[in-house]
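Cross-posting from the modeling subforum.

Setting up a comparison between two proteins and wanted a second pair of eyes on the formatting. Protein 1 (sequence, then structure tokens):
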Amino acid sequence: MPKASKHFFEELAPATRRFRSWALTYRGLLTLLGLLGLILVPAIQKSEYWLGIFVLADIWVIYAASWDFLAGYVGQVSFGHAAFLGIGGYATAGLVRYFGQPWWVSVFAGAFVAVVLGLTVGVPCLRLKGPYLALGTLAFSLILNELFQSPALQPWLGASGGVSGVPPLSHDAVVEYLVVLAFMVASLVVMVSITNSRVGTVFRSIRDDETSAEASGINTTKYKLVAFMISAFFAGIAGSLFALHFRGVSPPVFGTLYSFQAIVMAALGGVATIFGSIGGAYLFTFLDTFLGPFAGLSVFVFAVVLLLVFRFASGGFMKPVVEWLKEFIDILRGK
């Protein structure tokens, strides 16, 4: 047996035991039940409209988690995260629409284009700290917003109209939902695995005290750049799926509104949790859908909800809800 294969099987058994132990915990069981519920959504709700809402929520989960990965675990707050969402969407839309590439190839290609942008943004912006870093990323997003609307680039980028007529991921709403759900689960698992690894420990040390991390010999610039690229990759995945879902993409996707949506969703679910993005994104999506006819009111409602979360649950609403549910179950079990 090759050495690599032998090493893989040696690591497989401990990983399986760890998964079994985690699955038997309260949080593990709750996560698996939640996942089962999401898988069964098409069996309960076959409406294309509502399946589309769930698809959008899953896309926003990936997007919010990608921001949370960068800000919550590395301490690099970005106000221009929509740059990665938009560039991933444009790359995928262009490859599918104009070059006839398969959607799955285009999704990963769009994500890698976002990684290149993450590298481009990260190199100059990581010289900045605190609010200047946030404003630097915002500036990049605004530059892209104006650039992609330029009439001079209309033959390639479509100017203000963007790229339209993109073939969908699937004409079957159930298939689209399950594919996007699979992307969401895989993205969250990968991000959580990274944060729980040795690299994740380095990320948290940079977040907690960058000066001490540098003094201990950590190349903080290199690790922050890696974090930027990982975050951009998953934001690019979200942007690619976004373009396929809406069958097009336009310059407003680079706007500040989309950047702050990521912050709102991550804050609602709990920063530095990754999985909290699920609750935050779903709450945001369903509230936004309900308040859709009242465009002016929706901004006010989200502002109030965010203030309430900051006042009564500064770590997001997911953790207290999960803890309350555990206490409730314990009471029912007589503990």
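Protein 2 (same layout):
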Amino acid sequence: MPSEYELDTEVVGSDGRYQARITDRWSIAGRPNGGYLQALVVRTIGSELPTHPDLLTSTAHFLAPASPGPATVEVEVLKRGRSLASSRAQLIQDGQVKVTALASHGTLQGSGRTQSFAEMPTVRHLVAPADDEGPFEINRRFRYVVEPGLFQFEREPTEEPSFVAMVRFADGHRPSGDALPLLVDAFPPTTVKLGLVGWAPTLELTVHGLARPSSQWLTARLRMRSLVDGLFSEECELWDEAGRLVAQSRQLGMVPA
């Protein structure tokens, strides 16, 4: 039986033009999550690249908010090499481009030289919130282990806008490479640690796929790197239960008004 993620990123079409339906199951206050929209686009690109199954990098720019309903994804393969394929795509709704993305796909075989210069974060002192504690629809699609009070948004500001958490799909879907943009964007923004509560729209999100996740549960480390003139830069790392760094991301967002 298909998972919620698979159903909600399914497209129909061929030859670079696909029809999709954006659902409200991955929304924040009625607005579809940016990571979900990027994952939808990345999965659609994968339909054009059966010989390059793994996402290596994807950069998306969010031009306007999307809404639940039908949409079109247009894909252009720019290069189809032996080990690397590069594409660009755009998600269109109501005649307007909502998301534009560049992506490169390849094959992560795990046989090349590998070194990690980052340490997997520890998850001590984290708790599993109630399944319905998350304030938005997207939070019900996941199960979390987080620091106490992260989803309550009623807390004293801290000087360090960062946190560690764990996440998996609520229905048991095994994380796939095309789902990485959604997974890195599945948490409250680090702005909440500064007492800035509200919708923090993403302007740009870049995701690097480093390995195929080998477990349902992933451990995340999120850190704000800068806050300048109302724009914040946030990084996320995702680790699987084998201790492998499977994804890194950086996004540029706007602090809540």
